[in-house]
Amino acid sequence: MPVVSFPRRLADLAAQQPDRPAVTCGERSVTRAGLEAWTDRLARELRTLGVGVGDMVTIALPNGLEWFVAFVAALKLGATPQPVSARLPARELGAIVALAEPKVVVGTIDVLGPPGEVVDGVPVIDVGKVRAMAFGSAAAGDGDGDGDPLPDVVAPAWKAPTSGGSTGRPKLIVSGDPAEIDSDTPPLLRMVPDGCLVMPGPLYHNGPIVWSMTALLAGSHVVVLERFDAAATLRAVAEHGADTIYLVPTMMKRISRLPDEVRLGFDLSSLQTIWHLAEPCPPWLKQQWIDWFGPEVILELYAGTEAQTATIITGHDWLAHQGSVGHAAEGAVTILDPEGQPVPAGTVGEIWLRRQRDRPTYRYVGAEARTRDGGWESLGDLGYLDDDGFLYLADRAQDMIVSGGANLYPAEIEAALNEHPAVRSCAVVGLPDDDLGHRAHAIVEADAGAIDVEELRVFVRERLAAYKVPRTWEVVQESLRDDAGKVRRSELRAARL
Fold first, then answer.
1. 437: Cβ contacts below 8 Å, ≥ 6 apart
2. What span, in angstroms and rounded, lies between the C-alpha atoms of 332 and 307?
3. Would you say 245 and 274 are in contact if contact means Cβ atoms under 8 Å apart?
4. Domain end call among 344, 363, 397
5. pTM here?
6. Which of 12, 35, 13 shows the shortest CA–CA distance to 23?
7. Which helix (H) or strand (E) holds 232?
8. Which range of residues forms the domain containing residue 343?
9. β-pair type (56-60, 104-107)
């Protein structure tokens, strides 16, 4: 089987169709040949700073062409790209750099300081220099590829994204997979060879990394948005004839709430696969999208960055098992109670996962995995299996609220709140209560004056049992979720304590 390095695969694609677009962001685009030349230039610069096989390169760049240039350039030296948010405060970035011990940080001046500065002793390449080296003398994206040839090497780990985890302290999740691919195997994730992926998510998160690089290695044109915008996402699909798109439920909700004349005003007939993941999808929202695009187009995936195992569910299977995230492979998922005993089908417990191959799928830097005998690992999720082996998510274990002896799952309450048309987003956290021990407190993101709390209470009461209705309420205008649609309930709870 022709197993080749990621850089070799991209070079082969460039040789086959040099003028085909590789990546587009806004009005800027780079061809396959251009990406080859740009990444060669940056790789040589990284090499002068000591980057080699097995090293890490921290990438603190926003969505854009430069992110892909930095990511691929690191791989060309056998180094592991280590993406982080471009907007991290210096203290957080310093904590990650201390863990990763990268040879170089590639980032932006406003985050990292003046050009030539270092982060905890690590040299910095600013985004402006990346852009200058990338464009060089060929602003159209057809660089000259000057310099000594780069050897063909394989990075021992192809990515190392970060996670805050339940403790709030950063950790690295270093992939157990090297940067190599069997070029004769059909593309993963239902990618279409020479197709087009629209990526509206932030590239420092694992899902966007995996989908974008899988598409690029399949020869697909990756159209990345600088930041998520509901109408701009649909416009990108229509303009580029995209066959695949990556979404999270928050994005789906915001798209579905566009005025009909906007939402239905784009030709989206090219879409063959709509992936959604990263957080539970409320059944009402999932049903809307199935009604819109058809069940054969909608796919949902559940997995951690750790990739011990994954479940995937089609729209057709979901209609038969509403609320499920997919069928668990034999021996890959079990549900245990707090004492570590298996629970009956339909009973909520902690989800434990087991990898389906001999070698590890990841390693942590800065944390220890939660493990049990038999190779089981937990990501801290709660859920249950039905009689047919389909998995359902309840919530994160650390987010569950015990109120008056009853278990309350914030995700379930948030799903009901999110049905209200005036709710942009929400989060439910547990706060101390003299009577109940803890109470459910709802933080609702909405326009000023758009929400009447009493009306919202009635709205939720029509959808949930009375004991699940939040006892206290708060309306805010600031965003509760990050660019990837994730909400950190632990941080919101700590701020209110």
1. 402, 403, 404
2. 11
3. yes
4. 397
5. 0.84
6. 35
7. helix 230-240
8. 280-397
9. parallel
